[in-house]
Specification:
- By secondary structure, this protein is of the alpha/beta class.
- The N terminus and C terminus are likely disordered.
- The longest helix has about 30 residues.
- Helix 1 runs antiparallel to helix 4, helix 13 crosses helix 14 and helix 16 crosses helix 18.
- Helix content is about 45%, strand content about 10%.
């Protein structure tokens, strides 16, 4: 049974360094005011003696200060008259005279010329010395306080000496209201972590059989898949404290700070066990250490070494489980991934269509949706989306419905949110010339026609010539019916032909192409090159031509860098890529020539309405079959249109 924890003591107000520094400044100002002498004119001792004997000079309030200084006031009468009174102007000038050596004639001069009518007093020099000492001490305290505040600001801690304090956030059991019910679409990952929750709730069951729970669990997956949410759900289900910290919070510019923070974090976690320590973006801290000796003692490597030591020192029965998340596991140090540290790696992948539907159901619980909303259809329109994308989609749809004054989110807002997420914000304010609008209509009609006629292409849901995003003058929204994990050569050929449909349509209608097909050509070139170099789909054979590797979660992204084949092979690869693109271009040209009436019909409809949905597009194409091709000679994809 878990022991009740003591309430954390709040620090008293007087322990705040800011309050202490403010009090020191106030006390120093008071002492300075008490010890500060008024502005006075310095007089040498000889001058003072001569002025004593001057009948026009009158001295008053003359007093000794510590037997080494005389202070007082000199009253003089200026010959110049003062205004309308026609009287000499009287001036009172404070003065001070330093007495370096004892002068026996000075007391006689004071008695004779100052006279008994004036008070000749002697200040308490010891009191002024105490004032000066207190002022000095307070001034030094103030300077030290300012220095400590600067150190505190640079370290980012809560006290002047908090360099080595961990900057984690602690979520108590009552604060963690996240459970597995709030996580959807990653059932395999949740199944892996339920064992961790069961251990934290009933560790005796495992210890009785000699079992050992994994010390560390590494969550690996693309950004936005819910790794942090899954870690919070584990802590919420187990009802234990949750220590959250980013990998970049450990490393500072000061040497040794990161290692001290690691020690402090693990010490606090052990004191509050059972608990979960979660380190987000572990790759910022745990990158592979350099093999050379130069720079091997930098701050980040020392921090990583301390983390390795602390993880290795945790016993399996202490009830402290380390969880970490990263989307770059290939950069982590091998010593961090060995058994005994991060024993288990849980892949949090992109959800499939069923997972996306489950995620949408979680996010619509707090949103009013209409009866026409089909979440399965929305999930089908969002292949490759992660949980963060779907949450943003629901939020955008709710904002659009509220902006339109609706009481519930309808399917139209959902579809528009999908388009905004895929293509960008609609820009109806951009007014295109009629000729450019017509070119865009034929361009998008070419894409849509090729996609509908050819087999192995994704179904078209919408065609639009309304500008969206940064540079898109139109778009064709096509989405697969089901998730696809592999693609055949014929599917890739159809994808290339669909991407070429826009430029070929422009060439047939206008005789030349415009510069708006840059993204289409980039997709065509990249797909054709990967078919030759990575997939073995060319006459060069089943050979993989390696270049610089991409990341673990995004292989093949980089096509530049060192290669392991000759220049002749590179020329052969270029010829194969050109052959694939040229063959696809000629096939699309033949197809669109035979389907010219359907192409013009779709373009005219786009000019009239700017937007065509998928069903209307298929009806238009079916109403304009090729004149020289009977129905029974159509391909499978074309027969579905008639």
């Amino acid at each position: 049974m878990q022991q009740p924890r003591k309430k954390e003591r709040r620090q008293p107000w007087w322990s705040n360094s800011t309050v202490l520094v403010a009090a020191g400044v106030l006390a120093a100002a008071v002492c300075w005011g008490l010890t500060r002498a008024p502005d006075s004119v310095p007089l040498r001792l000889g001058e003072f003696k001569l002025m004593l004997q001057d009948p026009g000079a009158v001295f008053q309030n003359v007093r000794y200060v510590g037997r080494s200084e005389l202070r007082g006031e000199l009253v003089t009468r200026d010959p110049v008259t003062d205004g309308d009174k026609n009287e000499p102007r009287v001036q009172t000038i404070p003065f001070r005279t330093t007495i370096r050596d004892y002068d026996p004639a000075l007391p006689e001069l004071l008695d004779r010329y100052v006279g008994a009518g004036y008070e000749v007093s002697e200040d308490d020099a010891s009191l002024r010395g105490i004032y000066s000492l207190v002022l000095y001490v307070l001034f030094m305290t103030f300077m030290m306080g300012v220095g400590f505040l600067c150190i505190r600001w640079m370290a980012g801690g809560s006290s002047p000496l908090s360099f080595g304090r961990s900057r984690h956030k602690v979520y108590a059991e009552k604060d963690l209201k996240v459970s597995f019910a709030d996580v959807a679409g990653i059932d395999e990952a949740m199944a892996e972590l339920r064992e961790v929750v069961d251990f934290l709730k009933s560790p005796d069951k495992y210890q009785a059989l000699g079992g050992r729970i994994p010390k560390g669990v590494l969550l690996v997956g693309p950004p936005g898949t819910g790794k942090t949410l899954l870690a919070k759900a584990v802590a919420g289900e187990a009802d234990v404290p949750f220590f959250s910290m980013s990998g970049s919070d450990f490393v500072e510019m000061f040497v040794g700070v990161g290692a001290a923070r690691v020690r402090d974090l693990f010490a606090q976690a052990e004191a509050r066990a059972p608990c979960i320590v979660f380190i987000d973006e572990l790759d910022a801290l745990g990158k592979t250490r350099s093999g050379n000796t130069v720079g091997s003692h930098d701050e980040r490597e020392q921090t990583l070494n301390q983390l390795l030591v602390e993880m290795d020192g945790f016993a399996s029965n202490r009830g402290v489980i380390i969880m970490a998340a990263t989307n770059r596991p290939e950069t982590l140090d091998p010593a961090l991934l060995r058994p005994g540290r991060f024993d288990r790696t849980v892949v949090v992948d992109r959800p499939d269509i069923s997972g996306r539907e489950a995620i949408l159901k979680v996010h619509v619980r707090l949103v009013k949706v209409g009866q026409d909303v089909d979440l399965k259809h929305v999930a089908r329109l969002t292949p490759g989306s992660v949980g963060a994308d779907l949450a943003n989609l629901i939020n955008e749809a709710a904002l659009m419905a509220a902006r339109r004054g609706k009481e519930a989110v309808s399917m139209s807002e959902m579809t528009e949110a999908v388009e905004r997420m895929a293509v960008g914000l609609e820009r109806k304010s951009r007014i295109m010339p009629e000729e450019e609008k017509l070119r865009t209509a034929f361009h998008e009609a070419g894409h849509a026609l090729v996609s509908c006629v050819l087999p192995n292409c994704d179904p078209v849901h919408k065609v639009s010539i309304i500008p969206r995003g940064v540079g898109a003058l139109g778009y064709v929204l096509s989405r697969p019916e089901d998730d696809r994990y592999t693609m055949t050569k014929s599917q890739l050929d159809s994808y290339i032909k669909m991407a070429l449909g826009g430029t070929v349509a422009e060439e047939l209608v206008f005789g030349e192409i415009a510069n708006g097909a840059t993204s289409d050509l980039a997709k065509v070139n990249q797909t054709a090159r990967r078919m030759v170099k990575e997939f073995g789909m060319s006459s060069l054979g089943r050979i993989y031509f390696r270049e610089s590797e991409g990341g673990f979660l995004a292989p093949g992204l980089s096509l530049d860098g060192p290669r392991d084949y000759s220049e002749q092979t590179a020329c052969a690869i270029d010829r194969e890529v050109r052959k694939i693109v040229d063959t696809a271009t000629e096939d699309v040209r033949v197809l669109l020539r035979g389907r010219r009436p359907a192409l013009e019909a779709v373009a005219r409809k786009l000019m009239e309405r700017e937007v065509i949905d998928g069903d209307e597009l298929r009806q238009l194409i079916a109403a304009h079959p090729p004149a020289d091709m009977p129905v029974h000679h159509l391909t499978n994809g074309e027969q579905n249109l008639n």
